[in-house]
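Student: I would love a firmer grasp of how sequence relates to backbone shape in proteins. Thank you; the sequence and its tokens follow:
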Amino acid sequence: MADASSDPAAPVVGTLPAGPRNAITDVPGVTVGHCTLADGACQTGVTVIRPHAGDTYRNKVPAAATVLNGFGKSIGLVQVDELGVLETPLALTNTFSVGALAQAQIRAAVAANPEIGRSWPTVNPLVFECNDGFLNDIQAMAVQAPHYDAALADAGVDVAQGAVGAGRGMSSFGAKGGIGTASRVAGGYTVGALVLSNFGTPESLILAGRPLGAELDRQLKQQPEPEKGSIIMIVATDAPLDARQLRRLSLRAGTGLARTGSVYGHGSGDIALAFSTAYTVPHLADAPMPAVAMVHESKLDPLFRAAADSVEQAIVHALWHAQTVQGRAGHTRRALRDILPDLTA
């Protein structure tokens, strides 16, 4: 696991101030946990984001998603689009492990609420994925329910980045990708982002405004390939927004993504989800609904900017903190800072 505390400072995106951790966990109540599997051909894992410390099924949080390009196999987005709430923590993993984590989420929710699927409605699991099959033996389907449980138990405010959790086997721009996170403060609120970065062709890389693609392409000497990676972008805020406004916020994640050189390629699964921790929606009908004054539409622009900047910064952090990983069939993805050592000069 990369020790981010020993790394040189990463390039900074924009001029908005970051929160104290420069992480999604700067949004009050949000925690993140990882479970990393790193053994030979098995290079994968699980990352879990908890919107709050309570029971997410009983106390749902408002949320909405944007699908920029839908080459993906996530589960749960249809109900989020319809109802505008999250009912479980958010889980990230590899493509072939979505079903295992969905079952783990269902079992955890049922254990806490035995009437789910009986006198109460079923629960909507929410799992996002990227394909880590270059480094990871994805056909082994190594990720199972205990790994979800371990990531959930690991959830805290200090977030490891790079080749950890769901990001262990991910690639970006022909280099090592993975987990990145960042935050920005704007308009009196905090916006945080966490990305699972697994996208980008070498020649397209723009790092915090620096066009590095041509040099990266020269160093890697890889055969040209079409964009067929993916990225999951999770945006959290303590601003009181409803589901419609959160969908607008999630759409601005695409701005941050585009700044790094992505064109949302044909074979890419680019999905953004935004949620608010400002209030919760009770599951039980006899519990009082929250009476919350939402942010006025005319005051959303600072939050839009914060979302774009925090997503771009999170992608920078994913690349910056990644370490070189060798996995399946001897395949290797080198860390960007090993390929281009002058980045730290």
The domain at 16-337 is CATH 3.60.70.12 (L-amino peptidase D-ALA esterase/amidase). The two ends are 24 Å apart (CA to CA).
